[in-house]
Every structure is written in structure tokens, then in C-alpha cells.
Amino acid sequence: MKRMTFTKQISAAVVFSALAVSTVQAQDDNALIQGWSGTATLGANSITGNTEASNVNAGIRLGKTVDKWEHLVFGSYFKGDATSLVEKEDANGDPVTQTINGQEVQVFVPVKSGNSDRLALGYQPRYYWRPRTYFFGIIDYEKDKPANVDLAARQLIGVGHKFFSNASGFLSAEAGLGNKTTEVVFGDDVSGGVAYFGANYLNRINDNVTLNADFRADFGGDNTYTEIGLGLAFKLSERMALKLSHQTRGNTDITNPTLDSPSKSDSVTTVNLVVDI
Fold first, then answer.
1. Band (13; pLDDT cuts 50, 70, 90)
2. What are the two backbone dihedrals, phi and then psi, of residue 29, each rounded to the nearest 5 degrees?
3. Is there a domain that residue 92 lies in?
4. Would residue 62 count as lying in a domain?
């Protein structure tokens, strides 16, 4: 059953990425999507034995520029499960043992110790009123039930600026205001106005290695959300790269009360195949 579930996770991620690739490759037959380009990512792993764990993640980011307008479409998916062995206890909380080869040994049972299931989609139009300064809007949606987020949706407007942008990389920052609705699985929903700040940095260290870092924060009266990402990509061919990424996300006032040790933050490290499309 575990292998079958993991196979389904991989299949979903492959379809997620394959659809993006096939859509862009079809641009010669459809003038509506000509000019779009970007990247698709895919990564997965599985561990079996005394403990079992699996995760699969996929992502897509597409962009198109028309005169002073730039359109960005992005999406990501992450699915992870983990099972570990814990000591079995009776109704009184005492350890359960059994006799093996004449010796009393502790009995262990498998317990699901953690999971993650995130889906995010978004769109950001930008209008460059100066070569490096732009106005933007953001509409996005996210679902992350294990983190107690049934739905999070934002509608933002703001201004951004690229401090530099050349062949070696870029550094940009943007700030804005808007509304964010967060519907939780357990507890009270959190909705209202937010202030947004984001920053992105990319450095092409050499022809084969690229470093990127990004930061995002939503500051609201009832909750503050932060997201920090780091990535190091190694070029494999003209259109493919291997990328090591680490991301930390946190909500100051939203946790999952059903977990034994609920946390206000989640961190994930992944190794992905990145394809230019």
C-alpha cells in the first residue's frame, strides 16, 4: 500500500510538470501562448525499512513580456508522508512486551509521525513605468491542511524595483498592501488587511552554478506569515539543471492542534530536476 501511494504521488507530479512542458512546446500551434517561457521542477524520494517516508514535489513558473507588461504565472505542489515505530502501550499506559527466544522484548507499532500536503497557484502582472520600477498585482491561492490552512488567498497591489539586473543576476524588492483570507481547519479563521514585502536575489556564480535566495512576508493584525528560500542549481545541459533547495515557512498564530508537538514553522529540503521550457 505504501509503494502504491508513493507511485500515485509521483504520477501526479509527473503529470503536473508534463502538462506545463507540453503546453509550452505547443506554442507554434497556438498564437495565444507564444512568448511564454520559464521552468518546471520535479523531485521525489522514498525510504522503507524500520521507518517509511516519501515525498514528491513539483513546480512551474512561466513568464511573458508584452511591451511594458510582464505576466508571471506560478504553481507548486508538495506531498510528503512519514511513518516511524513507537513503543506500544496498554490501556494503563504501561509498555507492552512479548517473549522472543525466551526473552521479554518491547513491542513497537508503526505510527504516522508527520505529513505535508501543499498546493499553491498564483498570478502576478507587472507594469514597468520605468525600466527597473514597476507596479504589480498578486492573486494567489494556497492549501496546506497539515499546517491547519484549509485555504489562504491574497489580493495585493504594490510597487517593485530591480536594484540591478544583468547577465550575472539580479536583486529586486517589492512592497504592497491588500487583503488576505486564511480559512483554517481547526479554530478561528484569520482574514483582513495585510502589508506585503518580498525580495529576490539571483547570482550566476559561473556558467554552471547559480545561487538564488528569496524572502516573502505578509504582516497582518492577527497573523504574520514568512517564507525564506535558498537554492543552488548545477547546470547539466542547455535546458536541464539539478537544484538543491531549502525553504522555511511560518505562521505566528496558526498551528495544527491535532499534532502532539505542533509547530508554527515548516522546513523542507529538496533535490529537484529543473527543466527550462
1. very low
2. -100, -5
3. no
4. yes
Report residue 18: phi and psi, to 5°: -65, -35
Query: For residues 60, 54, 113 and 261, what is the CA-based torsion angle, rounded to 10 degrees?
Result: -30
Least Cα distance to 216 among 186, 271, 173 occurs for: 173
- What was the pLDDT predicted at 17? 44
Section 4-13 average pLDDT: 46
Q: 179 in a domain, yes or no?
A: yes
Q: By C-alpha distance, which of 145, 144, 125, 143 is closest to 135? A: 125
Partner residues linked to 139 by β-bridges: 123, 155
**CA gap 249, 260 in Å, rounded:** 20
User: Which pLDDT belongs to residue 145?
Assistant: 81
Parent domain of 65 = 2-81+113-276
Cβ within 8 Å of residue 188, ≥6 positions away: none
Query: Residue 186 domain-assigned?
Result: yes
**Which residues are within 8 A (CB) of 96 and not within 5 positions of it... i.e. 6 or more apart?**
87, 88, 89, 90, 106, 107
